[in-house]
Amino acid sequence: ICGACAAARSPLAAAAAPPPALPGGSPLPRRLYGGAAMLRPLRRLSRPPRRAAATGPGRRLLLSTPIFYANGPPHIGHLYSALLADALHRHRRLRGAGPGRLSTGTDEHGLKIQQAAAAAGTSPPELCERVSSLFHQALTHAAVSFTDFTRTSEPRHQRAVRYFWGALRDGGALYKGSYEGWYCTPEECFLPESQLTEHRDAQGRPCKVSLETGHQVHWTKEENYMFRLSAFQDPLRKWLRDNPQAISPHPFYQRVLHWLEEDLPDLSVSRERSRLQWGIPVPSDSTQTIYVWVDALVNYLSVVGYPETHGEWWPAVHHVVGKDILKFHAVYWPALLMAAGLAPPERILVHSHWTVHGQKMSKSLGNVIDPFACIGQYTVDGFRYFLLRQGVPERDCDYYDEKVVKVVNSELADALGGLLNRSTALSINPSNTYPCFSESCFPKVLDYRETKGMGRASAEDYEFVASVASLPLQVANYFEGFQIYKALECIVLCVRQTNSFFQRHRPWKLNRKDPAEQLWLDTIIHVTLECLRVYGTLLQPVIPHTADRLLSRLAVEPEERGLSSLTFLARYNGKSCPFEGRQLGPDTGILFHRLEKSRQPQIETKKL
């Protein structure tokens, strides 16, 4: 369920009501009203939607990516969605916040796949098998720690979809009616005239295309099942106004509220089976196929055991989605859930897109970036770091190879790797230990501006140490606010401050034979290693392999790498430090090798 998608247009109203009228009393044309046969009246829910029992600390949480459409291989936009969700999942696990799951997968039904398979000279099942395997490989290769990989072709999922359809039907949320309009196959939805423009096709013939994506549309007339979306306009508004954190970042929350102030027509939720065979048939009506988006959205329920055991997780769910599928997740999906007697998800975390040299990624432009090639060129952690460091959810971000090399070399290879190398070098630390901290050299003070004559540390040193001490909470707040890039900005700033601290005091110039100088030398190294331990711990959700190497070099045991027990400079606060005097781990060489500029752009080349 990922890809450029526009709002589905469905102007049908309930057949039981008289046709709406134009000013002056004339009824709307039948094409805009629809001859509909309502299945049963929409009933009010007799009980509140079922909620997951666990709340507060230790509660369960499902994080989800979209399930990716299996009509083509993965690109960096797919990977970005997955990495955002993965970093949140890893960070939560390090906090010891309670049971968690990370779900992803592939969306394998729909007309677009049916047509793509025909064009490739294969069957839809064979195409989906190949493409789903590519997505599974890409996510695994990128160290995405998913716990569940859903395929909509799986029996467990199809069973959940049929049950969900039954819940909508039994609640009176569905009716059958004639429908016609402009249908966009690549986007799997109807588009209103306001979202179309005139164009010419490859043969020079006039045609209509989507304003947003440029995809061609075709006039389609069908008898479909309709979902009474219009009946949920007020409940959706109330849900969002009662839950201002339900959609983040805030501009996307405002966008959804704006949509809910506009007309909210009913939604076509099936296609004629004569047109679409590759999908789940409507229960008790073999002439219709369930709309691909309804099918796909139910993956968030099927993965947690719907309809039997989903109550253990639902609605403690955070969806990570691209802005192009926001309406499907923030309007259609919550309304469908309400109609089925379930609560909306807790949060919808929205991100923007990646462009390439200022242009939207497009197969026709030949600029789709291949994640396999990028990981091969820049390493798993290097490419993870770049996407999470440079990606800003509120706005589109631009990709080009030179930027990857510059960011990763500057911040991982030079700033972080260089700091570890300098502070653990045998010329500086010949004992290869975590040296002792001296309170006389770095005494605790109430006001760091009044440090004259109180030790060797300067006011600037106290300010820097205070910044590092506050870093874990800052990072936690930014992760909670879906601003991972800001968390990384803070870490990088502190890494640079630590380098400045080390450079400012030039430990290589201190005389080891002087006991006072040795105390200060050990304190400089102790403070630097403590900073590195904090950075390594905080960076685990983003660059897991590099962080593991860093922490192993500092002899930090696996059970000492959690965020809940992370302390900094315990000796400065008069407490014991478990690392003091500990032998450092093996020297495995350079922490992160500098990248070379790519000679070839990382363009997608994988064939289906």
UniProtKB/TrEMBL annotation:
<dbReference type="Pfam" id="PF09334">
    <property type="entry name" value="tRNA-synt_1g"/>
</dbReference>
<dbReference type="InterPro" id="IPR014729">
    <property type="entry name" value="Rossmann-like_a/b/a_fold"/>
</dbReference>
<keyword id="KW-0067">ATP-binding</keyword>
<feature type="domain" description="Methionyl-tRNA synthetase anticodon-binding">
    <location>
        <begin position="460"/>
        <end position="557"/>
    </location>
</feature>
<dbReference type="InterPro" id="IPR033911">
    <property type="entry name" value="MetRS_core"/>
</dbReference>
<keyword id="KW-0809">Transit peptide</keyword>
<dbReference type="GO" id="GO:0006431">
    <property type="term" value="P:methionyl-tRNA aminoacylation"/>
</dbReference>
<dbReference type="InterPro" id="IPR023457">
    <property type="entry name" value="Met-tRNA_synth_2"/>
</dbReference>
<dbReference type="InterPro" id="IPR014758">
    <property type="entry name" value="Met-tRNA_synth"/>
</dbReference>
<keyword id="KW-0030">Aminoacyl-tRNA synthetase</keyword>
<keyword id="KW-0436">Ligase</keyword>
<dbReference type="GO" id="GO:0005524">
    <property type="term" value="F:ATP binding"/>
</dbReference>
<keyword id="KW-0648">Protein biosynthesis</keyword>
<keyword id="KW-0496">Mitochondrion</keyword>
<protein>
    <recommendedName>
        <fullName>Methionine--tRNA ligase, mitochondrial</fullName>
        <ecNumber>6.1.1.10</ecNumber>
    </recommendedName>
</protein>
<comment type="similarity">
    <text>Belongs to the class-I aminoacyl-tRNA synthetase family.</text>
</comment>
<feature type="domain" description="Methionyl/Leucyl tRNA synthetase">
    <location>
        <begin position="62"/>
        <end position="423"/>
    </location>
</feature>
<dbReference type="InterPro" id="IPR009080">
    <property type="entry name" value="tRNAsynth_Ia_anticodon-bd"/>
</dbReference>
<dbReference type="GO" id="GO:0005759">
    <property type="term" value="C:mitochondrial matrix"/>
</dbReference>
<dbReference type="Pfam" id="PF19303">
    <property type="entry name" value="Anticodon_3"/>
</dbReference>
<keyword id="KW-0547">Nucleotide-binding</keyword>
<dbReference type="GO" id="GO:0004825">
    <property type="term" value="F:methionine-tRNA ligase activity"/>
</dbReference>
<dbReference type="InterPro" id="IPR041872">
    <property type="entry name" value="Anticodon_Met"/>
</dbReference>
<dbReference type="InterPro" id="IPR015413">
    <property type="entry name" value="Methionyl/Leucyl_tRNA_Synth"/>
</dbReference>
